[in-house]
Amino acid sequence: MTILGYSGFGWLPSLLYLLLIIVLGYRDQRRPETPFFVGLVQILILIVLVIHGILLYESIFNGERFVFGFAQDLSLMAWVGLSFYWIQSFFLPISSLRLMTISMAMFCAILPDLFPGSVISQRAVADPWFKAHFIVATFAVGFFSLSAMLAVLMNLQDRALRKGMANGMGGAPTWIESLPPLLTMESFLFRLLYVGYVLLSMTVFSGLFFSQELFGKPLVFDHKTVFALLSWLLFSGLVVARLRVGLRGPTAVRWVLGGFVALLLTYVGTRFVAEVILQRS
Length: 281
What we know:
By secondary structure, the chain is mainly alpha-helical. It has helices spanning 12-26, 35-60, 70-88, 98-109, 111-114, 128-166, 174-177, 182-209, 211-215, 223-245, 249-277; strands spanning 61-62, 65-68, 118-121.
């Protein structure tokens, strides 16, 4: 069965991600990962990412139509986040993020089959400027999604360490032992944020000043515009505070999560309300 051009294999990436999680869970967690196992997992992740990406692209740029909704947005966000994790994992000790990013991708990859979205534009498929705007926006949200997952992990790590010190415990819990030091994770977090912030700035201001050229209509200050500006202001404040006063720790984590929530509400939240709650395309 085909819905708005979906090939019928939209469930395949989620199934493959689930198999990946099973492979990861089958390994003896008490022993360190061998180079062979790490290499095998990296190859498997790449294969699933390629399959997920092809199916997602074909479902969004469907013939002469641009089909999109909150489900496609979440699936893209998870794909970009996992892709960037995969690249960075060759250079940084961030394997602790692997299960979280794969699980998120597994959950989000199936959503477009359940919520097929709607035809947003007939002209967007052939418009290179719109495609560029769309790709930049997608990568921005993907970077921030990985930042949010890392921020959650850092928050859990910080709480566990504080609890251990308060109880006078000499050793940290097992899962804490496998994490990189907080300073390393924080450095990676802000590396993600800086790239995401540049991409978000390009997305927001191209949408504000070139709305007619990109979307075929003048700028409207609706809820999406308000949330987009709010998220940009939050991340701007975070970047400035980091550069000027060295903002770090739980305050920075809360700021990251607040900005990410505002960013989600920009499109995912509003489309979810329209498509699922109000049953409107």
